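Weekly puzzle thread! Below is a chain. First person to post its structure in token form gets bragging rights.
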Amino acid sequence: CVILDVQATCPDATVTQELLKDGFHRDLLVTAELGAAGEDAGGCAVVARIRLPPGIYVDPYELASLQHHNVTKAVLIPDAVDVEAPEYLAADLLILLYMEPDPRCSRCFRAALPVHGRYHRPADGSEEALVVLKSPQVLLCCCDNRFAKCGKPAEVEAPCSGKNVGPCRWHSLTHKPAHEELILQVPVGLRQHSSLVCVVTLLSTVLCATLILAAVCKYGHF
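Winning reply:
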């Protein structure tokens, strides 16, 4: 594209995030409404920079499938995620979620991302663990550099769109979250049930092994 010496009033953004569905497997819906100056953001790329705590993760294989079908576009950092790790052995994840214009609002953008809760250690008195998601940061990238003087460029290595090969110049918008944080409630086991769970697991294992051995003795060939 042609680079123009264009300056525009720096927009701000009101950010809202919401968790859809129940249980361990949820959809994170992020919406951003740009301020009055957002009318000048036509043709620009808008990204929500989301930091996920250890208690929640994105499945990279699921994300790759969604991107292949043009359902969701995102950059996962790091791109290798241990989906089997429990919360106490996991690390934070950084997601750059590309947002699409909302046809119902000229200055609004939105995107959804499937997220999954991790298993937590058993608790003493509560059947739920709380995972806190901070409000995401909104980044803006325009091909013509119309917002080039809007604060310090964000240190983000990501293309402006799927058509770009190299990274572009991102700018962080003034952040006005509707809520500072979002709470995800993850079901956990109780410590006082540990003995019962061990006994039931052992009995189930012995029973299943006995049934398999009986079937092998009856129908197997030695």
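Puzzle host: Confirmed. Bonus trivia for everyone else. DSSP finds two helices and 13 strands in the chain.
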